[in-house]
Amino acid sequence: MPRRLRWTRSSRHWVRMNCISTYEEREVMKIGFIGLGNMGMPMALNLTRAGHEVRGFDVVAVPEIPLGQASSAADAARGADVVITMLPNGEILSRVAAEIIPAMQPGAVLCDCSTVDVDSARAVAEQARAAGLGALDAPVSGGIAGAAGGTLTFMVGGDEAAFATVSPLFETMGKKAVLCGPSGAGQAAKICNNMILGVTMIATCEAFALAEKLGLDPQKLFDVVSTSSGSSWSVNAYCPVPGVGPQSPADNDYKPGFASELMLKDLRLAQMAAESADADTPMGLLASQLYARFVEDEDGRGRDFSAMLPRFAQRHRNS
Ligand code: NAD
């Protein structure tokens, strides 16, 4: 019988996972998990199911769950090998970091998986390192389905030692983790990726709305574009036309998926970063303005970000 041993670090203690054809030795880690929302809760549950000792905390009461519950963020962080945060924004992350860093044990790693601005990510990492901790910014792609299914992609900023410590946890919660560079590089990769996504989705929706007005069958346009130079993930994997291409939120009345307000958040973070780095991003700026109008003045809030298609289809050249 094949025998596969995986020793991740010099030991705290170990659990033996017996499978039909393999044995796996895996370290049980003590994890503090702060922010048990749509993403954080399923990620924390996946870590628990893998045998780790997880203690979670959220400011909002969470339902009865098979997870240790801490009385505060500092309580969740105390004694943990790794503290994972999954919070709404950089301001909240900074507040939580100020509370937990003094409570964490030396050598532990603070791993922030929220999507936040690059400057906050770098500042928090700096404070953690000054306190003798490891620090990673590790935002994710894959959404709620990826969090539940353990198929997230992690884009990571920080040093190799901290990355090696947290890698087994990334493997449990996701399918891929890329160390992109020093602190802030994970957030930089996330917002650059999502700036491309926002811009290509708008271009895709414009093109299909134009095609309709030109009397072109959207299925024919999909057949051409998806195998031509205009192809992109927005067209090929997430086509915004109902009934065309693979199953997507367009086939479910544009229920998210990836909500327009989350896309707006990421496009605004990209603009904050562009401002701070003095980068010229005219298409990213226009995409953030269009999604702001869609979410704040039109009917985009709570709809998938591909619902830009019916928006364009209803409009006219000068409306
Ligand atoms: P969410 O609002 O569902 O969860 C955030 C949680 O943080 C909430 O439960 C909230 O009560 C908690 N919280 C707020 N302040 C806190 C504090 N001081 N201490 C402890 N807990 C606190 O958001 P989400 O959808 O889980 O997203 C979390 C992060 O992941 C965001 O940064 C988001 O941009 C990013 N993200 C979300 C998705 C998605 O599809 N939802 C995809 C990729 C990335």
Structural description of this entry:
With 319 residues, this protein is of the alpha/beta class. The protein contains 12 helices and 11 strands. Helix content is 44%, strand content 16%. The longest helix is centred in the middle third of the chain and has 29 residues, at 185-213. 45% of the residues are buried. It binds nicotinamide-adenine-dinucleotide (NAD).
Keywords:
disordered N terminus; 44% helix; alpha/beta; two-stranded antiparallel ribbon; binds nicotinamide-adenine-dinucleotide
Tell me briefly what this model is.
The protein has twelve helices and eleven strands. The protein is of the alpha/beta class. The strands form two sheets. Strands 3, 4, 5, 6, 7, 8, 9, 10 and 11 form a nine-stranded mixed sheet that branches.
Task: Give every kind of bound small molecule, once each.
Answer: nicotinamide-adenine-dinucleotide
What is the approximate shape?
A: elongated
Given as residue ranges, the uncertain stretches (5+ residues, pLDDT < 50) are: 1-24
Helix fraction by DSSP (H/I, runs of at least 4): 40-55%
- Major sheet size, sense and barrel closure: 9 strands, mixed
